[in-house]
Design brief:
The protein has about 140 residues and is an alpha/beta fold. It has a single domain, classed as 3-Layer(aba) Sandwich (Oxidized Rhodanese, domain 1), CATH 3.40.250.10. About 25% of the residues lie in helices and about 15% in strands. The strands form two sheets. Strands 3-7-6-4-5 form a five-stranded parallel β-sheet. Strands 1-2 form a two-stranded antiparallel sheet. Strand 6, helix 4 and strand 7 form a beta-alpha-beta unit. It is globular and about 35 Å long.
């Protein structure tokens, strides 16, 4: 079996065109950001990471500095998602299913132009944990 080698760009937030998944590379859509790029941007203070998992899921740990905004509370707290297009907003859940659905719903219901700077994180917190990246207990309310 022939192995494929792909070089990923380290430039702007959305320029990495592929995310590695198993042996094959999968192209990212304009709605996604790779987990590696999301972590880099968040840790550098260049993006806001919003964890939309539910409170019972936070017990497994959260990324330091992530905003906790459960999907079940989103309709009441949608104004907490920044609409300043100069600051990328990254939605993360456990696997990416809810964050991708949430992004599409936001754009459909509240306008594409208001959420064009929002992306969902490919792989989610389950992949974050699998990679052994730091996680911490959620802050007490």
């Amino acid at each position: 079996m022939m192995k494929r080698r792909i070089l990923l760009s380290r430039g702007a937030a959305w320029c990495s065109p592929f995310v590695l998944s198993g042996a094959l590379a999968q192209p990212l859509t304009e709605e996604q950001v790779s987990l590696t790029e999301a972590r880099r941007l968040h840790q550098a203070g260049q993006a806001i990471l919003i964890d939309i998992r539910e409170p019972n899921e936070y017990a497994t740990g959260v990324a330091a500095g992530a905003i906790l905004l459960p999907m079940s509370q989103l309709s009441q707290r949608v104004r907490e998602i920044p609409v300043d297009s100069r600051v990328p907003v990254l939605l993360i859940c456990r696997t990416q299913n809810r964050s991708s659905a949430t992004l599409r719903a936001l754009r459909k219901q509240l306008g594409e132009q208001n959420y064009a700077h929002v992306r969902f994180v490919q792989g989610g917190m389950s992949e974050w944990a699998q990679r052994g990246w730091p996680m911490m207990p959620p802050a007490k309310p």
